[in-house]
Write a structure and sequence with these properties.
mainly beta
């Protein structure tokens, strides 16, 4: 599986963006997928994750109620809808995948920059 993230951009505080993570490979539905982000000078942090069947989702406390993760396995795509954006959400956002047999995200896409202006 290979991943490609897109959808980042510049948005004003309070605005919205939707990130997409497109996957290649016919077994995408067998992978859990997560979104992570890294702000300048900070370590990469977990943002949200969705299980292979979309039955389980998980969010960092900092984005709960504002971000929604979803997936469309027919389109091999995972989405991150980001609403009520804050300046502290500014970061490079990465999507990552892990198989059902592993606990570690070991497949990473390139990042997409999200900049929130205050």
């Amino acid at each position: 599986v290979q991943l490609q993230a897109c959808g980042g951009g510049l948005v004003q505080a309070g605005g919205s963006l939707r990130l997409s993570c497109a996957a290649s490979g016919r077994t995408f539905s067998r992978y859990h997928v997560g979104w992570f982000r890294q702000a300048p000078g900070k370590e990469r942090e977990f943002v949200a994750a969705v299980s292979w069947s979309e039955s389980i989702t998980d969010y960092a406390d900092s984005v709960k109620g504002r971000f929604t993760i979803s997936r469309d396995n027919a389109k091999n795509t995972v989405y991150l809808q980001m609403n009520s954006l804050k300046s502290e959400d500014t970061a490079v956002y990465y999507c990552a995948a892990r198989s059902l047999l592993t606990a570690k995200y070991d497949i990473w896409g390139q990042g997409t920059q999200v900049t929130v202006s205050s």
